[in-house]
Specification:
- The structure holds two protein chains of two kinds.
- In chain A, helix 2 (32-46) packs across helix 3 (62-74) and helix 3 (62-74) runs parallel beside helix 5.
- By secondary structure, chain A is α/β, with parallel strands linked by helices.
- Helices cover 44% and strands 17% of the residues of chain A.
- Chain A contains five helices and three strands, in the order E-H-H-E-H-H-E-H.
- In chain B, helix 2 packs parallel to helix 3 and helix 7 runs antiparallel to helix 11 (284-294).
- Chain B has helices spanning 6-28, 57-72, 94-109, 126-135, 137-140, 169-183, 189-207, 241-244, 251-257, 261-270, 284-294, and strands at 41-46, 50-51, 80-85, 91-92, 156-158, 162-164, 217-224, 229-236, 299-314, 319-340.
- Classes of the chains: A alpha/beta, B alpha+beta.
- Chain A binds chain B through residues 17-23, 26-31, 57-64, 66, 70, 74, 95-96, 99, 106, 109-111, and chain B through 166-170, 172-173, 176, 188-194, 197-198, 200-201, 204-205, 279-281, 283-284, 287.
Chain lengths: 117, 344
């Protein structure tokens, strides 16, 4: 059940790590999988609107972005229309704006994985 | 003969008592007569004067291969001696130095029975010694290069190598902070961060498919103040890109490129998938070139893995790719970004 009126902001650098890196948990402490499973997905299930802010991160590699954001479609059964309505990705830093586009690209191009029986 | 005085008799008696105690203890086995083990085998490895993968690839790689072979021979034996003559080196490139550091690190990790010691440091070329000290080579062996000569080359600064097993963003961020102190503002810093963390992720995911003593990456950087040249290097001792790639290629491509490691490295950069054969993975290697593409200055991106070498070069007016296969294989994968910052 979502809290209809509320919105939350997730600042990756402050609430997760300024040094995100890697795809799966075995890759390292601040992987895309860990961010998605522990922070992003629970927030999307709880709040009507989630704003993810990239400001302050050292960088965001493609492995991290695809697993964190593409993984919402591939593995968390969230479709693109749902994410369009409930997720906003943002940065005020010019050098990170390309990564906002990349995160949205991964959402657009992700394919839901078939769930095993 | 002089008659013994009372004092002399007393002293002799004490000495005799002590001697008796020593003999007693010896008989009980407390004292073991220690002799140096006889050396049964002695090997010497001469390093080439020019220790550079650019200028002397075959000789350098052959030397590294010999060092690795020695580290594995008779691991438990205390009677073998190996001398690696580094004092012959007159010039060493950062890339070759990093690979050498990794090889020595591997040796050190094998344990105390194969401990390396630095002999004859005074015979080393002072510039080489200083460079290796700056890069952290002697720290690996637990010693410091005490030689204080006027060899401080203010033109080039080398950063200490760092090593790890996983995607450790904090380590690359710290390296970049140190570089920033040397070069000032780093253009497209997030892109460089991404390129290196993707390289680390690739090492973690693909380079070491089997459990082994060392499954690390090694990272370093240098800055040439006069040339305005920044180098960032990362190296692993894994199975190499040409061996991880074939899983995802069609059979006819594999058989065509099988011995063409340079071609396989190029293919790895062009393909939209990584070795895991999954649609959503990939782009890591492409991202490494992208850092250079985004910069408003010239530079190069080089990958050396097994027999293959791939070089992407960018000048202000054009981009080019060059690839070649060497006669001897470099273990693992070396990636080097070389950026001329002056014009950005």
């Amino acid at each position: 059940m979502t809290d209809i009126e509320s919105e939350t902001v997730i600042n990756i650098a402050k609430q997760f790590s300024p040094f995100p890196a890697g795809r799966v948990r075995e890759d390292g402490k601040y992987s895309g999988m860990r961010f998605r499973e522990e922070i992003l997905t629970p927030a999307l299930r709880k709040y009507k609107r989630v704003k993810v802010v990239f400001d302050g991160v050292a960088g965001l590699g493609s492995s991290f972005l695809e697993e964190a954001f593409g993984g919402l479609v591939r593995l968390e059964s969230m479709d693109k229309e749902f994410l369009d309505m409930h997720l906003q990705i943002y940065t005020s830093e010019e050098e990170l704006k390309d990564f906002v586009r990349m995160a949205n690209y991964h959402i657009e191009n992700a394919t839901p994985q078939k769930q095993s029986a | 003969m002089r008659k013994s005085t009372h004092k002399t008799k007393q002293r002799n008696s004490i000495l005799s008592r002590n001697a008796y105690r020593r003999i007693s203890r010896k008989k009980k086995g407390s004292y073991k007569r220690v002799t140096k083990p006889r050396v049964t085998r002695q090997d010497e490895i001469q390093c080439p004067e020019v220790f550079s993968l650019d200028m002397n690839f075959d000789a350098v790689v052959s030397t590294l291969t010999r060092i690795r072979a020695q580290s594995k021979i008779n691991k438990e034996s205390h009677t073998d001696q190996v001398f690696i003559h580094l004092h012959t080196i007159q010039e060493i490139s950062p890339a070759a130095a990093l690979v050498l550091v990794a090889e020595i690190y591997y040796w050190v990790r094998l344990g105390k029975s194969r401990r390396l010691k630095a002999n004859d440091l005074s015979e080393w070329n002072p510039k080489v010694r200083k460079q290796m000290d700056d890069m952290g080579f002697f720290g690996l062996l637990g010693i410091s290069s005490h030689e204080r000569e006027n060899t401080d080359n203010k033109d080039i600064r080398y950063l200490k190598f760092r090593t790890g097993k996983k995607s450790e963003g904090e380590k690359i961020a710290k390296l970049m902070d140190e570089l920033q102190l040397l070069v000032g503002e780093m253009p497209h810093a997030p892109r460089l961060y991404n390129a290196v963390t993707e390289a680390m992720t690739n090492v973690r995911q693909h380079a070491y498919p089997h459990e082994q003593i060392v499954s690390n990456w090694w990272l370093t950087a240098s800055h040439h103040k006069v040339k305005g040249e920044l180098k960032i290097l990362i190296y692993d001792q894994g199975i190499g890109i040409p061996k991880t790639l074939p899983k995802m290629l069609t059979q006819d491509v594999v058989s065509t490129l099988r011995r063409n490691h340079a071609g396989l490295i190029e293919k790895a950069h062009n393909l939209d998938r990584s070795a895991s054969k999954e649609d959503h993975r990939g782009n890591g290697l492409a991202e490494m070139i992208e850092y250079l593409s985004k910069l408003n200055c010239s530079g190069s991106y080089r990958v050396v893995s097994l027999y293959g070498e791939y070089l992407f070069k960018k000048t202000e007016s054009k981009q080019s790719v060059r690839k070649n296969n060497h006669n001897v294989p470099l273990r693992g994968t070396l990636i080097e970004w070389d950026v001329k910052l002056a014009n950005d």
